Amino acid sequence: MNPEKIRDDFPILKRKIYGKPLVYLDNAATSQKPFSVIQAVQNYYENSNANIHRGVHYLAEEATTAYEEVRKKTASFIHAKDHHSILFTRNCTEAINLVSFSWGRKFLNRGDEILLTEMEHHSNLIPWHLLKNEKGIELKFIPFDETGVLDLSKLSELLSKKTKLVSLTHISNTLGTINPVKEIIRLAHEKGAVVLIDGAQSVPHIPVDVQDLNCDFLAFSSHKMLGPTGVGVLYGKQELLLAMDPFMGGGEMIREVWLDHSTYSNPPWKYEAGTPNIADTIGFGAALDYLNHIGMDKIQKHEEELTRFALQKFSLEKNITVYGPQNPEVHSGILSFNLEGIHPHDVGTILDQEGIAVRAGHHCTQPLMRKLGVSGTARASFYLYNTKEEVELLLQAIQKVFQVFHHAAAR
Ligand code: 7TS
Hints:
By secondary structure, the protein is of the alpha/beta class. The protein is built from 14 helices and 17 strands.
């Protein structure tokens, strides 16, 4: 895998920011898009635009086939048995909310428990807060230790017959921790709980096989894996999708409608009311082709090397705290850090002036920040087009941040 060659496929990476080459290290927020994805969206609007699942005309059939092909590609990307297990949503957040609304509201009752972790993104907390307010269920949390790794010794206490759902992130968007989800899924199933995996930060970066993991639901977003914004995916086991209630009512999700009642289509269409985001779903298909062409195992290996390199380099620096595990085998390409005495927003602003894009703040993980005892962190996150040279540039720019602040302090 040659990241230099890959970079040529991403037009935005040629941009200069304040006269300096863009170093894009905010991939956990969203990834950049290759030409093939941009062209797929443009080509759809130029040549194939029509509404799907309803027209008898040529373009409508062409658009329907293209859209449904992406469902099949998505199924094969995550090794799902059946493409009817793939629902398209707006984003990962909507996919998790769909489970909470359609499954949680129907099957959970007062006294039931949901087990989450202390490192969840707000998208995997707030849907359950809403359900708790409505149904009187209880939320429990697997803690993480001082290295940012989940403390599974607590699991036998936390998991019980009352646990109806375990919902957790595969990879922490703040700590970079890769969680042992397969083991947790196995233990949760022993208690009869359903398991939802938030794959927003894993599916784009490592091979994910839903049959091997045996998760019941998996949620992720196109825009973090080279695809357009506005498309999310929920994988669900067929028996669950058949039993759940619809998410939204409207066109395309029905079998028959009378004035005062209706019957519904089979999954996945039962959960896709109204005209979907056809163009961007087709763009997402081009993103899957691109990732498959490079190979997820190669992408994983490249990011592992970058992370190992970055962790090692950062560990040599004084006055920098890096959060999350130091062991690169359980630390994905997400590096949260703080420079002693300097606010992360100031770090982000000065790095920006050097052309380096990172995120600064709480990363939608406020409870995690509270546990770390900080208001925020700066966060660099890598993808297939990042290079060791860019990690070096980041470290040089961090030295600049220190210089700026030492000068300011000395004045
Ligand atoms: N879950 C995790 C683990 C995430 O990292 C994110 C987005 C989401 C869910 C929500 O994804 P969305 O596509 O529905 O917004 N994470 C981030 C981030 O870390 N910085 O910006 C968005």
